[in-house]
TrEMBL record:
Residues 48-475 form the Major facilitator superfamily (MFS) profile domain. Residues 1-24 are annotated as: Disordered. Residues 12-24 have a biased composition (Polar residues). Pfam families: MFS_1. Keywords: Membrane, Transmembrane, Transmembrane helix. InterPro entries: MFS, MFS_dom, MFS_trans_sf. This is Major facilitator superfamily (MFS) profile domain-containing protein. The keyword Flavoprotein does not apply. Gene3D superfamilies: Multidrug resistance protein D (1.20.1720.10). GO terms for molecular function: transmembrane transporter activity. It comes from Penicillium chermesinum. The chain crosses the membrane at residues 49-69, 89-108, 115-133, 145-163, 175-198, 204-223, 264-287, 307-328, 349-367, 373-399, 411-431, 437-461.
Length: 475
């Protein structure tokens, strides 16, 4: 594939060129320049405010999508349907998160980061408002599905913003923080929603979610900026609509990145690590969507507040996963810094995956034998340490491996993740009813172990061969 040049250098009809300059133009054309307009040279305060705005919308991406998972019983009674039917209102939204991320990629590259971040945020807020005012299951589900389609963008756009705004040595740390924000969401969101719903009703709870989206949108408007660097500032108003953000030919860019997505989906490293992310994310989301059923049943008999509080085990696990990722990834880098290759980032999965395997067994066996709820909480914490640690390590690897395709890579990994989250809600409840909790979570631990063994080592071995070939060439 050829790359796309800015409009100043290429007409709308001229042939595109390779991606290395169409993305991150400051590497290719402004290397060594200390231009204060380059996002990498912005002040720490400006970077921090923009990053906090990104964190707020990233936290809502998954957190808002599963916000209603602790409210399905109230909704079932309101709409006169079964609880299991009511629980499916989130499924299509979760699926469309993957497709929404893929569709956003060409737009991000053609029109810039900011407008594709801002306007889907506004639309998502309106979709949540529509869901809040819905009077039946079908209308509510339609709004929730559209919320998933548009609300996923922060999970894709975060990686190119980090690429634009920070230097390569800072990428793993910022990815760890950003990734933890949107991975905490699926556990924090339902907990808060359950507290509000227990005190009032599900409509008030969704009204609060609409307000949170409004606050996040205000933060994006106040602190968001275009981070695609073209060497000179454009109009602030124009940046809202993608005018002057990239200086690239629009139709050629849209076409190029649509083709690029199809190519990169099947690249060996992304295909292997994508499968790993799919399985790593599937089982924690399976816990999130089914845990209330068991906590409200004997021998636990939790009320709504108690069941919502249990969600903080997931939050604690995600934060512990951030801590593990921070220190373990730094240790991996220090150990291999003499002859560094991106594949070394993948060594960051071994400790988290071990935690996740132990967590699945602890969680499943505790529930299977009706043991104390502390076992459920500990197992859930261990599972989420594995989820966050693994996804962050793989994402950091993918950005280092393909730095000029970070938007594309981010969308592909997001697609794998959301496909796993969508699928589990359809097969796990029936599977547990048929085979029991102990066997199901034991099999999940085995599937996780086998998947990681079949996907990560081949990528590491391929990287090792590349490293040896390069060392031979240097000699």
């Amino acid at each position: 594939m050829e790359r796309l040049e800015p409009l100043e250098e290429q007409s709308e009809t001229s042939a595109p060129v390779s991606p290395s300059q169409s993305y991150g133009t400051h590497e290719a054309k402004f290397a060594g320049a200390m231009d204060p307009r380059d996002p990498q040279n912005w002040s720490p305060g400006r970077k921090t405010l923009l990053f906090l705005a990104l964190m707020s919308s990233s936290l809502l991406a998954d957190g808002a999508m599963v916000w209603g998972s602790t409210l399905v019983t109230q909704q079932a009674m309101d709409w006169n349907i079964t609880v299991n039917h009511s629980a499916t209102s989130m499924n299509y939204g979760i699926l469309l998160q993957g497709f929404g991320g893929i569709l956003a990629v060409p737009l991000i590259e053609a029109y810039g980061r900011y407008p594709v971040w801002l306007w889907p945020q506004v639309i998502s807020m309106l979709m949540v408002l529509g869901a809040t005012l819905s009077n039946d299951y079908s209308t509510f589900t339609t709004f929730r599905s559209l919320q998933g389609l548009f609300g996923t963008v922060p999970q894709v756009i975060g990686l190119p913003i980090i690429h634009d705004m920070y230097r390569p040595e800072e990428w793993p740390r910022m990815i760890n923080i950003w990734g933890t924000a949107f991975l905490v969401g699926p556990f924090l969101g339902p907990a808060v929603a359950g507290y509000i719903g227990a005190a009032t009703n599900w409509r008030i709870s969704f009204g609060v979610l609409t307000a949170l989206y409004g606050l996040s949108t205000c933060a994006v408007l106040a602190f968001g900026r275009e981070t695609y660097y073209v060497g000179h500032p454009g109009s602030r108003i124009g940046s809202y609509f993608g005018i002057g953000n990239t200086k690239l030919p629009k139709w050629a860019t849209l076409s190029y990145w649509s083709q690029n997505l199809a190519v990169y989906v099947f690249k060996f490293p992304l295909l292997m690590t994508g499968f790993a992310i799919l399985v790593t994310f599937t089982w924690p989301i399976g816990i999130t969507t089914t845990v209330d059923t068991f906590l409200h049943s004997p021998p636990y008999l939790f009320n709504t507040v108690e069941a919502s509080s249990m969600r903080f085990a997931g939050v604690i696990g995600a934060l512990c996963g951030w801590t593990v990722g921070h220190f373990f990834n730094e240790w991996v880098y220090r150990r291999h810094s003499t002859h560094w290759y991106p594949e070394y980032r993948l060594h960051g999965v071994w400790l988290p995956i071990s935690s996740m395997i132990g967590g699945l067994l602890t969680y499943g066996l505790t529930m299977n034998f009706g043991k104390h709820w502390i076992g459920i909480a500990v197992g859930w914490i261990m599972v989420n340490i594995g989820m966050v640690g693994t996804i962050v390590a793989i994402t950091a690897y993918a950005l280092e491996k393909y730095p000029n395709e970070s938007t594309c890579v981010s969308a592909i990994l997001n697609m794998w993740r959301t496909c796993g989250g969508f699928a589990v809600g359809y097969f796990q409840p029936a599977w547990i009813a048929r085979d029991g909790l102990g066997l199901v979570f034991g099999i999940q631990a085995i599937v996780l172990c086998v998947t990681i063994v079949l996907t990560i080592p081949p990528v590491l071995l391929r990287g090792r061969r590349t490293q040896r070939a390069d060392l031979v060439g240097e000699a």
